[in-house]
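Page 37, continued from 36.
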């Protein structure tokens, strides 16, 4: 029997149920590699909704793509190229059904800030560096996705994003002022240097360029207020173009974009060079983090409305592949676009096929309208970019941060100043490090609080005005026991001992500890040794199973003793109070615990029996011992 006959025989001998199970297992194995298989079968029912949403997105990205390319220092067509292949790849391999990838403002300004000091914007060498930067960025993102670092993006706080985007908005606006005033000066990489150069040459401005920019800007604002659903930027740029051409100002010093090639994105390998890779690796990592932060944040915000679950790791992989493959098709670094993704969802998109339709339709539009883009005036583009920059500044969010938290405000301000006066990628690093530092500062000092039962409710509270038991104290550790927190916790427990020196027994409530590492285990050993070395004893209550298992493996449980571990503070009290010094309980006036009354009555009984024994003689001592031991 040959191989073909063996397969046929095996299939014929397999039941329908077995084949169904085999098919389900095959899908479970294949879908993580090709996530588009989850929504692809649905397109037969949703293609009309997806096609309409795709058409809306294609029209919207046309002016945005050209504007973003100018921000990045790239020729205009590269902004449109970046909205084609990367958008398709991200849709196929990402997890979101509504996220639209392509050129974005923030990444465009970082690319410009990274490369403007290395090559002349728009030049062949500049484009080569941009493609290589995109490839490295994608590789970083893809590697992070494969390494399951999807949660890493959570360490970049909203304060960092707000400070960075505000700084980037001012940089964008400053870089476009030369086009508004019609100045033929080269861009300077620094914010201050650029403004100084602008002021030095302001006397050479072109009034026609300024007029075109003003008309375009007024048109955008008017359309957004009167007809917010209309493509205001596109209409405003058409108005600016008609004004320029009808008055012949394109021949009187008003610069125009020039003809775009009516072609699809050309395939070209990035120019790999070890020296260039070393030069671009650091900014590429910053762009990778920024792009992932944008994409995942946008996907999650839309998912709140759509009800979809977002896989951060899969989104990392999708974004990484989109940039890696896009770099071979003349696309510069891309990420998720909030505007286009939001409109895609609002337009009724049901699956990620809408992003693919948008990319394909954009290619068709480019082939049709490319010759007419030649008449698009640079001042009109600059005016539109000024509107984009203004919208980047979230004044409401800035106000909230300043009202709520000084720490977050400091992170935002430092990130903002770093974006303006340092290189942009360092602004992201500085802001992220500050955010992580704040997090570590908070978690490295978990509160260690003394607890006592509140009279009446018997609820355990922290109240220095309430009396403490002279023999037994209760403390809670309000955070995780990891390497950065151990010294502080030990210090605080020692301090509690100095506050209540007569307490020789302590219950430590640990129900709020969710994580413990090796340093935390060693810290518990130190705390136990210190208490028992001085003749005291220590008990623990409320260990979570995961934490208990780690302590069991490390030997801490054996050191504590199972009879010193309880599931709750109240259970601990029932087990510990009977072994306190009964004589002290008899004379105690505080009555801290509800068990104190019972303990006092038992103590009195023992005391009376001992008094009776002293009168009757030593022959009756044996009768008293079981009573005391039963306590």
């Amino acid at each position: 029997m040959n191989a073909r006959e063996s397969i046929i025989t095996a299939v014929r001998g397999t039941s329908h149920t077995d084949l169904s199970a085999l098919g389900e297992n095959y899908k479970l194995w294949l879908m993580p590699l090709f996530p588009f298989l989850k929504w692809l079968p649905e397109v037969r029912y949703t293609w009309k909704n997806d096609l309409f949403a795709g058409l809306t997105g294609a029209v919207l990205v046309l002016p945005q793509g050209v504007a973003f390319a100018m921000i990045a220092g790239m020729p205009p067509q590269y902004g449109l190229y970046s909205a084609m292949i990367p958008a398709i790849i991200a849709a196929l391999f990402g997890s979101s059904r509504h996220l639209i990838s392509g050129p974005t403002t923030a990444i465009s300004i970082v690319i410009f800030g990274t490369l403007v000091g290395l090559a002349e914007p728009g030049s062949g060498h500049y484009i080569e560096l941009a493609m290589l930067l995109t490839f490295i960025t994608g590789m970083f993102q893809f590697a992070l996705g494969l390494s399951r670092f999807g949660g890493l993006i959570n360490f970049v706080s909203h304060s960092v994003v707000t400070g960075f985007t505000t700084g980037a908005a001012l940089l964008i606006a400053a870089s476009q002022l030369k086009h508004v005033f019609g100045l033929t000066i080269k861009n300077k990489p620094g914010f201050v240097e650029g403004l100084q150069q602008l002021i030095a040459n302001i006397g050479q401005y072109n009034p026609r360029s300024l007029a075109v920019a003003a008309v375009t800007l007024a048109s955008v604002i008017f359309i957004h207020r009167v007809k917010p659903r209309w493509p205001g930027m596109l209409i405003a740029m058409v108005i600016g173009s008609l004004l320029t051409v009808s008055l012949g100002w394109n021949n009187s010093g008003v610069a125009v974009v020039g003809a775009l090639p009516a072609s699809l994105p050309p395939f070209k390998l990035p120019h790999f060079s070890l020296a260039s890779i070393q030069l671009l690796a650091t900014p590429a990592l910053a762009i990778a983090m920024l792009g992932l932060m944008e994409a995942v944040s946008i996907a999650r915000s839309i998912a709140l409305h759509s009800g979809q679950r977002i896989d951060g790791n899969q989104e990392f992989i999708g974004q990484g592949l989109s940039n890696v493959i896009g770099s071979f098709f003349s696309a510069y670094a891309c990420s998720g676009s909030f505007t286009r993704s939001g409109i895609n969802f609002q337009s009724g998109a049901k699956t990620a096929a809408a992003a693919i339709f948008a990319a394909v339709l954009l290619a068709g539009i480019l082939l049709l309208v490319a010759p007419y883009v030649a008449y698009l005036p640079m001042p009109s583009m600059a005016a539109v970019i000024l509107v984009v920059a203004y919208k980047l500044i979230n004044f409401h969010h800035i106000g909230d941060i300043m009202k709520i938290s000084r720490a977050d405000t400091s992170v935002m301000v430092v990130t903002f100043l770093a974006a303006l006066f340092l290189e942009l990628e360092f602004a992201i690093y500085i802001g992220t490090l500050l955010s992580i530092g704040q997090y570590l500062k908070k978690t490295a000092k978990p509160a260690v609080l003394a607890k006592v039962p509140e009279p009446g409710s018997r609820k355990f509270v922290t109240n220095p005005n309430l009396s403490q038991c002279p023999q037994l104290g209760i403390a809670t550790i309000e955070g995780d026991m990891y390497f950065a927190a151990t010294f502080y916790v030990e210090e605080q427990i020692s301090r509690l001992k100095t506050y209540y020196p007569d307490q020789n027994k302590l219950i430590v409530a640990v129900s709020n500890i969710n994580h413990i590492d090796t340093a935390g285990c060693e810290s518990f050993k130190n705390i136990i040794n210190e208490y028992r070395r001085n003749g005291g004893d220590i008990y623990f209550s409320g260990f979570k199973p995961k934490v208990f298992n780690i302590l069991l493996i490390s030997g801490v449980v054996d050191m504590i003793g199972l009879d010193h571990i309880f599931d709750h503070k109240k259970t601990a009290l029932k087990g510990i109070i009977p072994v306190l010094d009964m004589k002290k309980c008899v004379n105690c006036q505080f009555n801290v615990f509800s068990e104190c009354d019972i303990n006092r009555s038992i103590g009195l009984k023992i005391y009376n029996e001992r008094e009776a024994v002293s009168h009757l003689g030593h022959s009756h001592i044996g009768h008293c011992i079981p009573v005391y031991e039963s306590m």
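The first helix runs from residue 3 to 12. Flag for discussion at group meeting. The chain has two domains: 38-438, 447-586.
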